[in-house]
Write a structure and sequence with these properties.
Elements: E1 2-5, H1 9-20, E2 28-34, H2 38-48, E3 59-64, H3 70-77, E4 85-89, H4 95-105
Parallel strand pairs: 1-2, 2-3, 3-4
Helix pairs in contact: 2-3
Amino acid sequence: VLVVKATTVKLVVKLKKILDKKDTNIKIFAVIPVYEDHRSLKTLLENILTEGNLGYLDEVVVVSGSKSNEIEWVGSEFRDSGFNIVLLDNPDRYTPHALNIGIKYS
């Protein structure tokens, strides 16, 4: 299992495409910690959830420290994209805690 920051997803997907030719079994999880900025999350998901990444990006784990429903709404907007998107809660609201939650999940 390989857990990557969302900003490095494109690079890791290229690596997985190369390794797939060698029958290597690698799973890629993108862990996205987010607090209140649902607009940035939407833009990020639009950039990484492309047809070119379908089949190479195994799961997107969004770990939210927000109490608003906007993050959940953005995540649900992409559920029909063919990607497995999981929304987890980060009650401590700190980025390192969110990353640990996402890593433990994956």
